[in-house]
Amino acid sequence: MFEAREFIVYFPFDQSVLTAEAQSVVSEAAQYASAGGATQIIVVGHADTSGSAKYNVGLSQRRSKAVADALVGMGVDGGKLAVDWKGEAAPAVATGDGVKEPLNRRSTISINF
User: Fold this and answer.
1) Segment 32-72, tens digit of pLDDT
2) β-pairing, 40-45 with 81-85?
3) Closest CA relative to residue 6, chosen from 31, 37, 34, 42
4) Are 47 and 105 spatial neighbours (Cβ–Cβ below 8 Å)?
5) Residue 67: CB partners within 8 Å, gap ≥ 6?
6) Rounded to the nearest 10 degrees, how much is the dihedral formed by the CA atoms of 101, 44, 39, 36?
7) Tens-digit pLDDT profile for residues 86-105
């Protein structure tokens, strides 16, 4: 039985390119979604507080798009994908402004059945 699950893809500082480790997480998410017949997959991009808020919105958008594109490239139905981005507004780890926090540089993949 498949249950709703979240996968987290991390990014290097100021980057939106998937690392080998990130590709592995995306691949695992794609396989899980396909095997269970996911009805909806939500990808949300995030950034840490280093850099301006405006810049971080764009960076988180690029991160979510990179993950979504990779999922589609791995056979996930693009019609079931929803893509969003939060910039630095929804950190995994609360920090002050201007803090380079690796756990906040991420995209989440939420898979629903």
Assistant:
1) 999 999 999 999 999 999 999 999 999 999 999 999 999 99
2) parallel
3) 42
4) yes
5) 9, 18, 22, 26, 43, 45, 107, 109
6) -20
7) 999 999 999 999 999 999 99
